[in-house]
Amino acid sequence: MTNSATILIIEDDDLQYEIYEDALSNYNLVRVTNAPRLSPKSRKTRQMC
Amino acid sequence: MSGRHFKRSTAFPSPICLPANITSSSARWNRNCNIDPKPARLEFSVVLPWYRETRLLLISFAGLGCALFFAGLSYNRHRRLLRSYTEVEQKVAQRTRELEIANRELLHSQKMNALGTLAAGIAHDFNNILSIIKGSAQIIEDNVENPQKVRTRVDRIKTVVEQGAGIVKAMLGFSRDSADQLTACDLNEAMKDTIKLLGDRFLREVQVTFEPATDVPDVMCSKDFIQQILLNFIFKRGRVYGQRKQVILSTRTLETLPPGMILAPAKTPVYAAISVKDFGSGIPPEICPGFLSRFSPPKQCPRAAALASAFRWFMNWPKNSKPASPSNPSSITAACLLLSCPFRKPRMPRREPRLKWKRCHEIRNSKFEFERIPGAGYGNDICCFEISRWPRRIFPLQRFSTLINTPLQRGGGCDYALDKPFQRFSRRFLRPETSGMVARLSSNFEFRICFEFRVSSFGFLTLEPCP
Fold first, then answer.
1. Nearest residue in chain A measured CA to CA from B139
2. ipTM, 2 dp
């Protein structure tokens, strides 16, 4: 398992998120579509980042 | 003297002896002294022509004068009445022209208002499109040696350009002033274009579901007029304050008009109906009857009757339906637009679904099979997803939350989803509160996906293709 950084992506558009996936393929991406959907886990992840 | 005539009488002097029954004054004698029982008399009479009769002349002249006076009076009144009629007709024609101009300006103003409301969403859509094009171009620059990635990015660019072209086309068609041009209009296409105009931002706040009927015939109308009505309906329905901001659009064909209509559209063999339903606060029951009676047609004013008729077309709540109660947030308010269809479209045979019903465990363990229609080409299709109840007992919670926790996205394109695992597809196209969600899938790769999810009351997730 790679020890790469995790990036939180707040993006609701699939095609744009796909671009993020392509551009940031070396990182772990956590995706939420909007801020209210941020789960405590992802919030914690964001704070860690 | 002229006019006086004398007749000679043969009266003799008094008689000598007279019968008892003959008096001396009345007896007349002839030449032989015999008593003439009918003696000749000299009568005197005056015969006067009418025009010499002064009283008659006076009365006649007085009557003639009166008759002439009243005839002149009535003629004068008649002429004034005709003149006033002409003035009234001129004023009516002028007011009618002004009203038509005002109606046109009002329609244009409503259009601009609607476009202004849509502008933010449309700008957001275009911003997304430009971002995708820019990002794709940068990825292509960085990965020129990777033909697979370049091809994918080029396909994405084509997809979003198609989307942008569709939005521009819908905007141009909507902003064009064609209210006076009646053309054969496909209602399903008009509704799809209207949904395109709404944009992603509006559709994220309000769930707009479109349930098209396959056999809706074309109607003679102005397409932007229909779109304007639909936008008004959707915006007003979308502003309701309730837990479920959901608008259901549907088209259907009617052979006969619903009973109890105050004003009916022109008689045609078949009618098309556009229905707009929402789950908002509803209409208070005390408003509906007065609302409808206010637009009953006054027979004396055909233009007002026509306006009332048009409004009845716009806001046609069936009389027999129970109005939604404002206290019930889940109540449905339906508005129906009825249109006469001079063209009868042949009824399309119902296509048998190719995908059979599957239970949840079958879906969980199986791959999706999509209907591939060669030649469907570039275009946008509407897919309806409907999930009404979660089968928590059957699905493991984590897996099911993965299935449903990502909102449905419009314009994502189903082409690349086909190549991905089921989990990714479901993550893209389902969301938890989905209940009648509209997805516009760009069928860039000659695919048409048309199915819906339903969860029955027994907790089975079933898969059924739309007809």
1. A23
2. 0.72
